[in-house]
């Protein structure tokens, strides 16, 4: 299997494009991170059995309601509970880390789950400025984002083990990695995870296109920029050894429930959680009862209405219709669904209902 085959998915059932999962490992009020991580295992196994193409985990920090601060650790755990589905980061926030560390982590994941690991990279901190400064041990945060192309190039060379002779890192090797196949008696596969660029604006779209890399756009929190960013990616695209044509997925907030009213209640609770996050009060995902009793200010209500207008929710048929329309409008090559609800059981049920709506196969 070559790298292009690992990137491009295949639509299952009647879905308009391959369907995948983005997991933030959300923690509801009254629940624990342990329970949230158990739910992630259950969802990953369901996704694998029902023909979802890949399962990504997003890096976030200092958010009580999001337990995905260590994607590589979670992915290793998921690799032990699955056998076929692609696993990856959606994404690792590269400026928070030394490129060598990421090359080592994902080389290890590749060794644990050969041929099914993706490395999605973002340039945002995935948190607030103070937390980003603590992660990076510096207050010069803009420097990390501005240096993203150079960090990406360095990481790629560590993954490929091809620093030129004379480079200060030429004698440094990311292990597990290609160096093991060229060492005396080496039998290590030289394969490495395909790199994706993530973005919510035009910067990464243009960079991904110019490098001929696959692109993932965060439609779920930057819907107004989706079509302009995808257009920019396609216009900027140059064929590469990785891809001969553009390939773009979009993250979509989608929640299907057996009862339409329950979907509205869960989406309101998730939106309240986002209001608190945006106003510097991050916490656990509130219960629907707490959200229904909450007195929203006019400004908060306006935010809620705008936010929820981009969440596809309702019955399975309503969600299927919304996803079909979104794929048609954007031309996305893949839809990566992220469900937000207080209950892990409802998140699991949502992915099952969507799979049923599209007639996805049962393993």
Overview of this protein structure:
The protein is of the alpha/beta class. The protein contains 15 helices and nine strands. The protein has helices at residues 3-7, 33-49, 71-79, 99-112, 129-136, 141-146, 148-160, 179-182, 202-211, 226-236, 260-278, 288-293, 298-308, 316-330, 344-357, and strands at residues 19-23, 54-57, 86-93, 117-122, 195-199, 215-217, 248-256, 312-314, 334-338. The chain has an eight-stranded parallel beta barrel with strand order 1-2-3-4-5-6-7-9, surrounded by eight helices. Helix 2 (33-49) packs parallel to helix 15, helix 4 packs across helix 7 and helix 11 packs across helix 13.
Q: Outline of this structure?
A:
The protein has 363 residues and is of the alpha/beta class. It contains 15 helices and nine strands. Helices cover 45% and strands 13% of the residues.
Strand content: 5-15%
Distance between the termini: 22 Å
**Which range best describes the helical content: under 10%, 10-25%, 25-40%, 40-55%, 55-70% or over 70%?**
40-55%
Please give the count of helices: 15
Average pLDDT figure: 93
User: Which overall shape is indicated by the principal axes computed on the Cα atoms?
Assistant: globular
* Number of E-state strands: 9
Largest sheet: 8 strands, parallel, barrel
List the helices and strands in order.
HEHEHEHEHHHHEHEHEHHHEHEH
């Amino acid at each position: 299997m070559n790298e292009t085959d690992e990137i491009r998915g295949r639509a299952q059932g009647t879905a308009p494009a391959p369907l995948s999962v983005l997991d933030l490992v959300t923690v509801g009020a009254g629940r624990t991170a342990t329970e949230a991580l158990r739910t992630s295992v259950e969802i990953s196994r369901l996704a694998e059995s029902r023909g979802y193409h890949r399962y990504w985990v997003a890096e976030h920090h200092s958010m009580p309601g999001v337990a995905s601060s260590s994607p590589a650790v979670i992915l290793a755990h998921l690799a032990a509970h699955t056998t076929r589905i692609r696993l990856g980061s959606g994404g690792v926030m590269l400026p928070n880390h030394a490129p060598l560390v990421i090359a080592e982590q994902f080389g290890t994941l590749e060794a644990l789950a050969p041929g099914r690991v993706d490395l999605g990279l973002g340039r945002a901190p995935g948190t607030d400025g103070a937390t980003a400064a603590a992660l990076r041990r510096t207050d010069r945060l803009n420097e990390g984002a501005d240096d993203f192309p150079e960090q990406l190039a360095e990481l790629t060379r560590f993954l490929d083990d091809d620093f030129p002779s004379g480079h200060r890192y030429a004698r440094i090797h990311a292990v597990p990695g290609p160096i093991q196949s060229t060492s005396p008696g080496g039998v290590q596969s030289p394969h490495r995870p395909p790199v994706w660029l993530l973005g919510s604006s035009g910067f990464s779209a243009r960079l991904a296109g110019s490098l001929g890399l696959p692109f993932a756009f965060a439609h779920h929190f930057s819907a107004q920029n989706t079509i302009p960013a995808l257009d920019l990616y396609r216009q900027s695209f140059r064929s590469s050894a990785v891809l001969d044509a553009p390939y773009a997925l979009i993250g979509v907030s989608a929640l299907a429930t057996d009862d339409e009213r329950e979907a509205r209640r869960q989406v309101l609770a998730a939106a309240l959680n986002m209001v608190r996050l945006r106003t510097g009060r991050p916490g656990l995902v509130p219960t629907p009862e707490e959200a229904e009793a909450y007195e929203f200010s006019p400004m908060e209500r306006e935010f809620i209405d705008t936010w929820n207008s981009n969440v596809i929710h309702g019955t399975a048929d309503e969600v299927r219709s919304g996803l079909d329309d979104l794929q048609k409008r954007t031309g996305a090559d893949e839809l990566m669904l992220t469900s937000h609800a207080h209950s892990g059981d409802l998140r699991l049920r949502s992915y099952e209902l969507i799979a049923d709506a599209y007639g996805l196969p049962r393993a």
